Amino acid sequence: MASAASSLTFILLYGVSYGLVLFIISIGLVITMGLMRVMNLAHGAFAAIGGYIAVSVMTNFGIPFPLAVVAAVAGVVALSVVLERLVFVNLYGAPELDQVLMTIGINFIVIGGLTIFFGPNVYPISLPDYLTGNIDLGIRNFEVYRLFVIVMGLIVVVGLWVMFEKTSFGAKLRAAVDNPSMTRVIGINVNRVFIIAFGIGSGLAALGGAIGAGMLPLEPYYPMKYLVLVLVVVALSGFGNMRASLAVAVLVGIVDTAGRFLVPSFGGFIIYIVLVVLMVLRPEGLFTKRAA
Amino acid sequence: MDMPNARFLNRHRFSLWELVPLIVAIGCYYLFPGYLTLGAAVLVMAIFAVSLDLVIGYAGIVTLGHSVFFGVGAYGAAKLSIAGIDTPIAAALIAGAMAAVLAVLTGPFVLRLKHLPLIMVTVAIAAIAHEAANKMSWLTGGHDGLPNLAFEPVLGLFNWSIWGTTSYLYVLAWLVLLVIISRIVVSSSFGMALQGIRQNELRMRVMGAPVLKQQVIIYTYSAFLAGIAGALYAQTNNFVSLETLTVDLGVFALAMIVLGGLGRIYGAIIGAAVYMIVQYLAQQWDPYFWMLAIGVLLVLVVRFGKGGLLGIGEKAWLRLRPARPDYTPAKREKLEPGE
Amino acid sequence: MVTQRNRLGTITVAAGLMLSTAAMADTLKVGVVGPMTGPLAVMGEQWRQGIETFMELNGDTAGDTKIEVVYRDTTGNPANAKQMAQELIVRERVQALVGFGISPSAAAAAPVINEVKIPTFLPHVASPALMEASPYFVRLGQNIATNAEVAAKWARENGMESAYVAVADYAPGHDVANAFKPAFEGAGGTVTGSDNIPLSTVDFSPFAERIAEAQPDMVQLFIPPGAQAVSMVKAMAARGLMENTLIMGQGEAEDSDIQLFDGTIKNFHSAIYYSESLDNPENEAFLEGLQAKFGEDVLPSTFTLGAYDAMALIYALATDMGADFDGDAVMAELAGYSWASPRGKITLDAESREPIQDFVIRRVEDVDGQLRNVVVDTIQQVHPISGS
C-alpha cells in the first residue's frame, strides 16, 4: 500500500511539474493561434532561444539565474516583435500551407543557427545551488527544482488569469479572440492587440524554455523535438481556449509520466495514440468553446 | 513549336518540353557513369516527391506524415524479398499496394480533419509507425534494419551491379511510367475536381461533389506511388532501416516540392533533383549549415512566390523567347502544364 | 533470399579494379567512412585525430608503400554509409576501409564489401551479430555483450546481490540486457527488474523512480551518450541513486563528456577496454603524439584508439604485403594476430576476428578538483562471445 501511494504521488508531482512546463511553453501558441489563426510551427524555437540565452549568459557571464531568465525573456520578446513585423504579418489570412512552410523554414533556420553557435550537443545548465537537492514532503522526497517549476507555473497561471479577467487589455484580447471583426467595429486596435499578445506568448515560451532547461535539455533540435508535444496541447485545447490548455497540458504531463512509469516499453506510444483517437473523435478539442 | 498528333497530346496536355527531363536523365547516364547510385537515389526521391505533390499541391491535403507510406513500401519489399518473392517489378507493385491499403483504411478517418488536427494526426501516425517499427524488431530488424536484401535481375535479364547501371535505368523507367499515369490523372476531370476541392471545398460540397471519396482516392493513389518509391529504395540500396519512416523524410520532401514548384509534377521532380544533388555536394559542409540554407529557402519561396524553380524557369523563358507572329493565348496555356 | 549473382559481372568488376590498382602499386589508399558531421560527428573527428596521430608518429610510408587516407561523410545515416563505401571502392579504389559509426551502417555496406573483398576495420561498433555480416570485418572495439558480462561478473564479485537493468530501447540496449541477465544470474545474482527506455524519451524521472522503488544493489545501464545519458543520470541523481547504488555503464561518460553531467556523474562505473590513464609505453606515446598534434587538453576516447589501432594494422599489413591487398590473404594474415596497443596486448581471434583484450572497470572520481575516469580494476584478456 505504501508503494501504491508513493507511485501515485510520483505520477502526480512529476506529471504536474512536467505538464506545467508544457503549459508555460504552449500557452503562447494557444493564444496566438486562437487570435491570429496562424499555424506557427516555430513556437518551439522561441522556447529554445530563451533557454539558450539564459544558459549562455549564466555560463559565459556568470549572471545569476533569475536575471538570466529575465534577460532570456526580454531578448525573445524583442526578437518576436521584430519577427512579427517582418515575417508573421505576411501570414495573416494566408493559406495554411504557406504558414506551415514559412514557420518550418524558421524552425530550420533556428536549428541551423543554434548548431553553428552552440554546437550539435546538449547545452547543459548548471542550476544554482538553492535549486538543487531534494526536499522532504513527508510522503516522499521531491526535487527542489521541480517544486520551483510548479510554483512558477502557478504564478504564470495566476498572472494570466489576472490579465485576462481584470485588465482592459485582457478584455480586449478575449474580445479579439471571440470575434475580431466586431472588436474592430467597436474601435479597438486589434492589430496592436495581436502584437502585444504575440510578444507575451513568445516571452512565455522563452520563460518555459529557460526555467524548464533542467527538465527539457537544450539542444539544437529542441524546436522540432518538442513541437509535437506543444502541438498536442494546442490541438487538444481547441484554438484560443486558454483555460482548457492548462487542464490539457497538465493532463498530457500526467498521462505521459504515468504511461512511461507504468508501462515503460509503450510509454512513447501512449500519448500519440491518445492524440490520434481524440483528434478523430473531437477535432475541435476536448473542451468545446462556445461559438461566438 | 510544331506538335505532331496534336489532338491526342492536346487532350492530355502533353508538350514536347516534357521530354527534356527524360533526355537530361538519359544524358546523365552516359555522362556520369560513376555517380549512378546517387542518380538512382535522386530518382527514387523524385517519385516520392511527386506522390507528395499530388496530395499537397493538387489536392490541398497538408500532411506531414507521408513517410509512413514510403516506409511501408520499403519494408514491404524487403520482407517480400526475404520471403522469396524477389522479382523486382512484382515486388514493387505489391509493396505499393500495401501502402495503398493502409491509405484506404486510414484515409476515411484522417481526411475528415483539416488544418492543425490533420497535420497533428498525420505526424502522430508517422511517429507511431516509426516507434512501432523500432519495437517490432523481430519484423523490421529494429534499429539495425534489414540488410543484405537480394533481388532477382530485372525482367530476368538485367543484373544489379555495384556500379548502379541497372538501378538507375530501372528507377528511371518507373519514374517515366508513373509520371505519364499521374499526368493523365491530374489532367482528367477527376484532377480538375481535386483542384476545385483545394481551392474551395465548400463550393465543391455545395455542388454535390463527393469530396471525401475523391480525397481518399487521390490519397490512396499517392500512397501507392510512395510505396513504390519505398520499394525501389529497398531494391537499389539492398538495405532498409528506420530512416525510411522518420517524420523528417516527409518534411524534406515538402521542401523539395516547394523548391521545384508546388502543384507541378515536373516541379516535384526538379525540386527533388536539385535538393538531392546540392545536398550531396554540400556534404563537405556541416549538415546544419544545410538546414539553415533549406530554412532560408523555404522562407524566401513563401515570401516571394511559390512558383519554385520551375516557375522561375518558365517566367525567364517567356521573357527570353522571341515574339512570334502566330503567338496566341491558347498556345501560351500549353506551355504551362499542370496548373 | 537466394539470388543468382552474375559471376561474370563480379569477376569483370574485380578484374577491372585490380588492373587499375596494379598501376598504382606503390600507394595504398585507405578509405575512412563514417559520421564526420551531424549528431555523431564526434566519432569522425576523433577517428581523424587517431589516424593523424598515428601517421605523425610513424610517417606516411609502411615499408615501401605510401599510405594515403581518403575521408567520406555519412552523417550517421546507414543508406549514406553504403553509398559512400561504394564510392570509395569504385571511384577511389581504396584497398581497405576504416569506419562505420553505428552497426546498421556497417551492415548496410557489407554486401559491397563482400563483393569486392575489402578488409574493413571497425574502430568501435559493438553489435554482437555484426561480424557474421562479412568475413572481411575486423573489430577493434568491443562486442557489447562482453562489456555486459564483464560488468555482471565484477558486480557479483563485489557483493552485488540484486540488479536492475535499464537500457535504451534499441538493438545495442537489448544486446546489453540479453548478455547481462544470464551472466548475472548465472553467477548467483537476481535481476529484479528490466526496463526498455524508448529512444524518444524526454523526461527520465519515471524510469529513475521505477529503479528507486525496486531498491536494487546495482543498475546496469545502456544509454546513448549525449543528451539522453545526461538526462538519465541527472534523473537518477535526483532520486539519490548515484550515491547509494552501483551504476554501471560502458561509454556514457567518456572523459570528453564528463563536463556535460554537471557533477552528477560522480561514482559512475563503466566496464570498457580502455582508459587514458593506463600505464604502458604505447599509451604514453599515443597520448604524447595526440596532445602534441591537437593540444594539451585533448583526451582520447575509444573512438580515437580504434582508428589509431586500425592504422597500426594497416601499416603492418602494407609492410608485409605491399600496396595490393588481397582480401582473403589479409584476413588469413590477421587471424590470431597480436600486437601491443595503447590499451595493452590485443589479439584478433582467429575464428571470429573479435578482439581478445583487457577490460577495465572505471569509476568517475574527483582528481585534483576535476572529475575523471579512474581505473579501479582490470580483467585480463577477456575472450568475447561472438554472435547474439
Structure, briefly:
The complex is a heterotrimer of chains A (292), B (339) and C (388). By secondary structure, chain A is an all-alpha fold.
Tags for this entry?
heterotrimer; B: 339 residues; mainly alpha; disordered N terminus; C: 388 residues; alpha/beta
Structure, described:
The complex is a heterotrimer of chains A (292), B (339) and C (388). Chain A contains 12 helices and 2 strands. Chain A has helices spanning 2-36, 43-61, 65-86, 96-118, 144-166, 168-178, 180-186, 190-211, 222-225, 227-237, 242-262, 267-281; strands at residues 134-136, 141-143. A two-stranded antiparallel ribbon of chain A has the order 1-2. In chain A, β1 (134-136) and β2 form a beta hairpin. Chain A is globular. With 339 residues, chain B is mainly α. Chain B has helices spanning 6-12, 19-31, 36-58, 67-82, 88-110, 115-135, 137-140, 165-187, 189-199, 201-206, 211-237, 247-260, 265-281, 287-304, 308-320, 329-334. In chain B, α3 (36-58) runs parallel beside α8 (165-187), α3 (36-58) packs across α13 (265-281) and α12 (247-260) packs parallel to α15. Chain C has helices at residues 7-23, 41-58, 78-90, 103-116, 144-157, 171-186, 205-214, 227-238, 241-244, 281-294, 302-321, 327-334; strands at residues 27-34, 61-62, 65-73, 96-99, 120-122, 137-139, 162-168, 190-197, 218-222, 246-249, 269-272, 338-341, 344-348, 355-367, 370-382. Chain C is globular. Chain A binds chain B through residues 33, 39, 87, 90, 96-98, 100-102, 104-113, 115-116, 120, 220, 228, 231-232, 234-235, 239, 265, 268-269, 272-273, 275-276, 279-280, 283, and chain B through 56, 60, 62, 64, 109-110, 112-117, 119-121, 123-125, 127-128, 131-132, 135, 251, 254, 258, 262, 286, 288-299, 301-303, 306.
